[in-house]
């Protein structure tokens, strides 16, 4: 009997010898960022809308505040009282906050994209929490701008500009962030099921593996947050303290700018490589680096507490205390989770992740759910 090539492809075999099973091609990053699941698509779309809307509004606010601060400086030129000095310092600090808020919007978009890419429930939840923190920050931004306007009324100078020119726009940003946060609650709840099934499908039902995976995702999530908060603190401290006109200690520029900031980057890269390779040597170096970072942040926090009322921290004491406290808490949490992941080295999670990496995830191939129709496997002689 003659067989054509199409018939041969349908011949099953009890043994895989001589036969190759054609599987679906591996997914790409582009396909994962344009997933088939509607809630995964909604997450990318919602993050993009938030990015565009909030950055647009915040850029206008930053420009208006910059013009207001320049007009305020010109109107109070020649006065040397402490009220004027503190007012100008607070105005300069507010400019940095605008920049950080804009960067934070871009950062949340990256977090969402990476959460979809890795199907990480933990990162999706942390992104939602991060957005709620941005909502709170938008309210604090309004409060600080209002305080600057109130303080400017105490200065007796001619041609003072109208206080708080960005009040309306800042209120719009607050309500916009509240709306986006509500949307993130809904999207995260929906994606919780999608990502949960993806983990089950790719790593199985082994509880110990899932626990190790959870610690891995928590660690990776903390590293991503560390990037924002570590460099956010470094930049604030550099601009508001070290490069401030009142700063006379030139050695701080070299200590912080040329040592602390580059070491921050090295530490974060080292921490990432250590967990991906399960390198005990690199993880040990990471833990030592985190210990040094904790000590450095504690020293800076004590310095702010002791010298907060001096000209060194004029206009930056509250923001630095807030940012340093968050950064220190994240650093301690990263150290603890790093230790827990260190204990899991060599227990098979690395191999499981390498096998799962590149497969079709739930958000890419919904048809793989139990009970869904699947295509019959194709067999061919080669």
UniProtKB/TrEMBL annotation:
Oxidoreductase recorded as keyword: no
Keyword terms of this UniProt record? Membrane, Transmembrane, Transmembrane helix
Give the region (Disordered) as residue ranges: 1-27
TM spans (from-to): 39-62, 124-142, 169-187, 218-242, 254-274, 281-299, 319-342
Q: Which domain of life is it from?
A: Eukaryota
Keyword Membrane set for record? yes
Q: Which residues form a coiled coil?
A: none
Q: Which InterPro entries match?
A: UPF0658_Golgi
One Gene Ontology term, aspect cellular component? Golgi apparatus
Q: What is this protein called?
A: Uncharacterized protein
């Amino acid at each position: 009997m003659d067989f054509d090539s199409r018939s041969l492809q349908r011949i099953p075999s009890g043994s895989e010898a001589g036969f190759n099973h054609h599987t679906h091609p591996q997914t790409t990053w582009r396909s994962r960022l344009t997933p088939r699941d509607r809630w995964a698509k909604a997450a990318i779309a919602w993050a993009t809308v938030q990015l565009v809307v909030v950055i647009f509004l915040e850029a206008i606010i930053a420009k208006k505040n910059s013009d207001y601060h320049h007009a305020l400086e010109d109107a109070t030129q020649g006065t040397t009282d402490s009220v004027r000095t503190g007012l100008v310092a607070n105005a300069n600090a507010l400019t940095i906050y605008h920049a950080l808020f804009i960067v934070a919007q871009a950062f949340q978009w990256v977090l969402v994209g990476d959460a979809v890419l890795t199907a990480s429930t933990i990162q999706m939840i942390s992104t939602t929490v991060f957005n709620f923190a941005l909502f709170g920050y938008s309210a604090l931004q309004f409060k600080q701008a209002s305080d600057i306007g109130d303080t400017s009324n105490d200065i007796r100078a001619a041609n003072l500009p109208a206080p708080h020119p960005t009040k309306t726009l800042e209120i719009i940003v607050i309500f916009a962030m509240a709306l986006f946060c509500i949307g993130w609650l809904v999207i995260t709840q929906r994606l919780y099921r999608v990502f949960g099934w993806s983990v089950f499908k790719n790593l199985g039902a082994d509880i110990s593996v899932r626990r190790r995976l959870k610690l891995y995702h928590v660690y990776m999530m903390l590293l991503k947050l560390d990037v924002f908060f570590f460099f956010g603190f470094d930049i604030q401290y550099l601009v508001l303290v070290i490069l401030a006109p009142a700063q006379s200690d030139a050695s701080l520029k070299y200590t912080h700018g040329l040592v602390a900031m580059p070491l921050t980057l090295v530490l974060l890269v080292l921490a990432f490589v250590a967990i991906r390779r399960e390198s005990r040597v690199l993880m040990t170096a990471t833990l030592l680096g985190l210990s040094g970072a904790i000590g450095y942040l504690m020293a800076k926090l004590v310095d702010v507490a002791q010298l907060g009322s001096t000209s060194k921290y004029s206009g930056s004491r509250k923001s630095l205390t807030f940012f340093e406290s968050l950064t220190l808490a994240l650093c301690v949490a990263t150290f603890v989770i790093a230790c827990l992941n260190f204990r899991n080295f060599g227990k098979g999670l690395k191999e499981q992740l390498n096998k799962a990496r590149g497969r079709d995830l739930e958000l890419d191939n919904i048809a793989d759910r139990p009970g869904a129709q699947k295509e019959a496997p194709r067999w061919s002689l080669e």
